[in-house]
Amino acid sequence: MRSDLRLTELFGIFQARTPIYVRRFLFNLLVAGTLLSSVEAMADNPRHKTEFVSENGRYVLFNVHYSVERTPIFDNGEYVGVMKSVRDEPVWGLFDAHAAQPVDPANGLLTLMAGRAPSYVLTGDFSSRTALISDDGMNIVVIDDFSERSAVPDLEVLHFYNSGMLVATYRLRELLENVENVRHTSSHFRWLFWESLSLDRETLSLTTTECVPLMFSVSTGAMITAFRRAPAGSFHSESECPVMQ
To answer: pTM value?
Structure first.
């Protein structure tokens, strides 16, 4: 009881002796800290995406189904049936929304894809990644930009597809001078600044967490900009990057 009273007295003294602008500043600082913690907690949640849409809204990369392996079962040399198992990598189909039937709002993309063959299919675990689709649907870039895996030098984090064919893959060591310069959360890491990602008709642009801007050909995956030495350390955002000549 006495401790509660003591706290009340101290709070009263704080209010009486602290200017109002200082109290407001401290309150705003507390609110900002709370919001930032909430945003970081939300950002660290695992992703699970089932579709990606091109910027012009025409093309949709949709998780069609998981590949199923059928393994024959034998008992003393006699065939007794088939064991079905889901493979690790799901199948994704690219669909042209303009060529589809009207979409039922209740079923959404499922209606859009029903009974239609995709333009082409890709195989891979893209649900926790970012897939950027060109406006003509010919090129897709898949980026492991918020990875749940370990940040090791040979980790594949950037893939380029042209008409459904994989044309280029980049490992972490090919994009960063030092893989320790990734930015870690409690369960993920990122190696680029999300705000820097830009896909146009011919190129993909991004800036790594080492503040190195990179540009790639969308159709071939070739790196257009020469890799150059990064400034020491890693950075939280692109706005923190030093100006380099």
So the answer is: 0.68
pLDDT means per 10 residues in the chain (245 residues)? 49 54 49 42 67 93 70 68 62 83 47 67 90 96 92 96 97 93 88 90 92 94 76 64 54
Name residues whose C-beta falls within 8 Å of residue 48's C-beta, 6 or more positions apart in sequence.
127, 128
Sheet holding 59-75, edge to edge: 51-53, 59-75, 78-96, 120-123
DSSP labels, the chain? -HHHHHHHHHHHHHHHHS-HHHHHHHHHHHHHHHHHHHHHHHHTSPP--SEEE-TTS-EEEEEEEEEEEEEEEEETTEEEEEEEEEEEEEEEEEEEGGGSPPPPTTTTHHHHHTT---SEEEES--TTSEEEE-TTSSEEEEE--SBSS---TT-EEEEEEETTEEEEEEEHHHH-S-GGGSEE-SS-EESB-GGG-EE-SSEEEEEBTTS-EEEEETTT--B-SPP-PPPSS--SSGGGPPP--
Q: How far is CA 22 from CA 27, 28, 87, in A?
A: 9, 10, 60
Please enumerate in sequence order all residues whose Cβ is within 8 A of that of 72, keeping only pairs 6 or more positions apart, or say none.
Answer: 79, 81, 82, 83
Q: What is the pLDDT of residues 74-105, one digit of tens each?
A: 777 766 665 655 555 788 999 988 875 544 44
CB within 8 A of 160, min separation 6: which ones?
139, 140, 141, 166, 167, 168, 169, 204, 216, 218, 220, 221
pLDDT given for residue 90 in this prediction: 82
